[in-house]
Design goal:
Length: 688
């Protein structure tokens, strides 16, 4: 169904509603209107990396782990599976009259905010720090969610619009000040791309103010930019209880009716929260017109028609409940975990040789942790494979003994309340001393980095204070370093960390339900590592500006002036790729890539551009990427699409200008000195 038809149907239906009925439909928990055959509908659902918070579903790697794949096609395939599971669950549950929260088809994903500061607790919900990578992955995720049928498979949502990335503790009152250049160059491109190219059906506003205006009631963002400049035709939803912040925290209004009026007048159609319970008061006070209510209601019912919720010919209604949590979906989750894990360091200890290793010690608070697999905004898998379980299963096939110790609490100084501090260090040391190899599974989970006020957050704000793992784990790693010369450190986390110990270091992210199986296959060299970092890993937060400073100066790889710990785009492999014969065209780059290493593997090709222009970013920026799988000894000519904005720069007034001459770098990493040092490789360079 096209939008014009859906809108016409919505207008006709809404015209038969009373004023009170129209107003009632602007809440996320919209009640039924029985006389018109309208069932109750809850707009609030989450599918960040799988159907979330609604029972059993496939749990894919957390969004930041999906970004580390640098794989547009796989991104869309995963999103398509997620929308299949969402439809399967919706079809079954709605037949039973269950129309509760997290069970609808309007899914509030993806999170395409820019991960500008490693302290932000919600950064692992994003696709990293780069606007182009975020744009491409956001577009393909949305296309997978919304499908290609007559109706929308699900209705995706780009969030949080805009200029939103912490601090979490201040988000309800914070004013994010961003210049015109930073807005156009960094904070808005992914939103514009998902509106114009992906046709995203919904956009969610942010909690914070942006240059003085609350994002969910911002004329600049919602009216002038989103609808007038970009031509957005879908609906806008507030973040949850964000409109209440207008009068309670931002103090830009005095009352709830004033807040409701400010939001709806500027284009916020749906209220996640309860401030729109005051919408009729706003009307009575003359702050809005009935037309404002009608307009929002029509937009919302247009989406419901586009989803086929009032149709008898929607192809997605036939998806059975058996299409949820399938073997095929589990295999896809495993594939994603394999492609997203990043090998940061390796002195030759990896891959492990199953014929020589007889005893492995698996130690650490994340070794047997399901939370270390999940991230946040997650579903519940029926198939979790922890790191310990994955290694144990693999080892059993090869007659390898596995020893396990918790080693330490995730963040407390002891694992038992009656014990002395460091009560598991001796056990960890004795196993490490006798094992051929020790696998230390450390890091964080969503209880240590996440959303403000999330249930279970050890730190209420959800943000990190530094780039270190908790002190209990630092003492554990020190003990292990003293106990063995064969230490592999596996870090589960969703953001930049500085973990010094290990002969090899693996960044596993929050890798989803199949994380343990993927890790074992990678450690033993059954497949090669191929993940690359979608964000810069810093040495210390002291190297960065204040968390509250939203200027991009000295932030992310495009502007950072110090030396990173590991650069954006970096990732090691067990095999080796050589690039040659590169040519830059108007819209693409062609390059020959050869796998001249020891095994099959995937190359993540990256194209960076450095414009010869005073308004260019200080460092070359990503303008193209492609993942290509090559057998050992295979060569292939690869064509990489360039960002349409490649040959432009943004001036201080937020206007795009033609860049003029540029230098292109084509390789498997950035062209910076640290990437060259860590990889021993130099990208090809082409001037035009």
């Amino acid at each position: 169904m096209n939008r014009d038809t859906a809108t016409a149907k919505a207008k006709e239906l809404v015209s038969r509603m009373t004023l009170e009925e129209k107003a009632s439909q602007l809440r996320y928990d919209a009640p039924a209107v029985p006389r018109l055959g309208i069932p109750a509908y809850n707009w609030w659902n989450e599918v960040l990396h799988g159907v979330a918070r609604a029972g059993t579903a496939t749990v894919f790697p957390q969004a930041i782990g999906l970004a580390a794949m640098f794989d547009e096609d796989l991104q869309e395939e995963i999103a398509s599976v997620i929308s299949t599971e969402a439809r399967a669950k919706y079809n079954g549950q709605s037949r039973h009259g269950d129309r509760d929260i997290y069970k609808g088809l309007t899914v509030w994903s993806p999170n395409i905010n820019i991960f500008r500061d490693p302290r932000w607790g919600r950064g692992h919900e994003t696709y990293g720090e780069d606007p182009y990578l975020t744009s491409r992955l956001g577009i393909r995720f949305i296309k997978g969610l919304q499908g290609n049928g007559k109706y929308l498979k699900t209705a995706a949502c780009s969030k949080h619009f805009a200029v939103h990335s912490g601090p979490e503790a201040l988000r309800h009152q914070f004013d994010a000040r961003a210049g015109k250049k930073d807005l156009e160059e960094t904070y808005l491109p992914a939103f514009e791309a998902t509106v114009k190219e992906a046709g995203v059906e919904s956009v969610m506003g942010a909690y914070n103010r942006v240059n003085g205006e609350p994002a969910c009631g911002s004329r600049f963002l919602l009216t002038e930019t989103l609808r007038e400049k970009w031509g957005f035709q879908g609906h806008v939803v507030s973040d949850c209880w964000a409109i209440r912040d207008f009068h309670e925290n931002h103090k830009v209004t005095a009352t709830a009716p004033e807040s409701a009026a400010l939001a709806i007048k500027n284009g916020c159609d749906l209220n996640c929260g309860n401030t729109y319970l005051h919408i009729l008061e706003a009307l009575q006070e003359g702050l809005i017109s009935e037309e404002d209510i009608t307009r929002a209601c029509v937009r919302l019912f247009t989406t419901r028609y586009l989803l086929g919720l009032f149709a008898d010919d929607c192809e997605y209604d036939k998806i059975p409940v058996t299409e949820n949590d399938t073997d095929e979906h589990d295999a896809l989750a495993l594939k994603a975990a394999e492609k997203g894990m990043v090998l940061l360091e390796n002195d030759g200890i990896l891959p492990l040789n199953a014929d020589r290793v007889k005893t492995i010690a698996v130690i650490g608070p994340n070794a047997d942790s399901v939370m270390a697999l999940e991230g946040n905004y997650n579903g519940t898998s029926s198939r979790y494979v922890t790191f310990l379980n994955g290694i144990r299963s693999y080892a059993a096939k090869h007659g390898i003994r596995v020893l396990y110790s918790l080693g330490s609490h995730l963040f407390k100084d002891r694992t038992s309340g009656l014990a002395q501090a460091d009560d598991r260090l001796a056990e960890a040391a004795m196993y490490a001393e006798i094992a051929d190899v020790t696998i230390a599974c450390v890091g964080l989970d969503a209880g240590l980095e996440g959303e403000e006020g999330d249930t279970g957050n050890e730190y209420f704000s959800g943000d990190k204070e530094d780039l270190l793992i908790p002190e209990s784990q630092r003492r554990l790693l020190k003990t292990l370093r003293e106990s063995t010369d064969h230490l592999v450190t596996v870090i589960a986390a969703g953001s930049s960390l500085n973990v010094p110990e290990g002969n090899a270091k693996v960044f596993a992210w929050y890798p989803g339900q199949a994380g343990g199986t993927a890790l074992a296959k990678l450690l033993f060299g059954e497949i090669s590592f191929s993940g690359h970092l979608p964000l810069t890993f810093y040495r210390d937060v002291a190297d960065l500006p204040a968390f509250e400073d939203y200027s991009m100066a000295n932030r992310t790889y495009r502007y950072f002036t110090g030396e990173a710990l590991y650069p954006f785009g970096f990732g090691l492999s067990y095999t080796h790729f050589t690039l040659s014969d590169a040519a830059v065209g108007d819209q693409t780059v062609k390059v020959t890539v050869s796998n001249d290493g020891a095994m099959d593997g995937d190359a993540v090709l990256q194209v960076y551009v450095a414009a010869e222009h005073p308004q260019a970013t200080p460092r070359p920026r990503l303008c193209g990427f492609a993942r290509v799988g090559l057998r050992k000894g295979e060569s292939r000519i690869v064509e990489i699409r360039l960002d349409p904005l490649t040959r432009t720069v943004v001036n201080e007034e937020g206007e795009r200008e033609t860049a003029g001459h540029a230098v292109f770098y084509i390789g498997t990493c950035q062209p910076d000195p640290l990437s060259r040092k860590l990889t021993g490789e130099a990208p090809l360079e082409i001037k035009e």
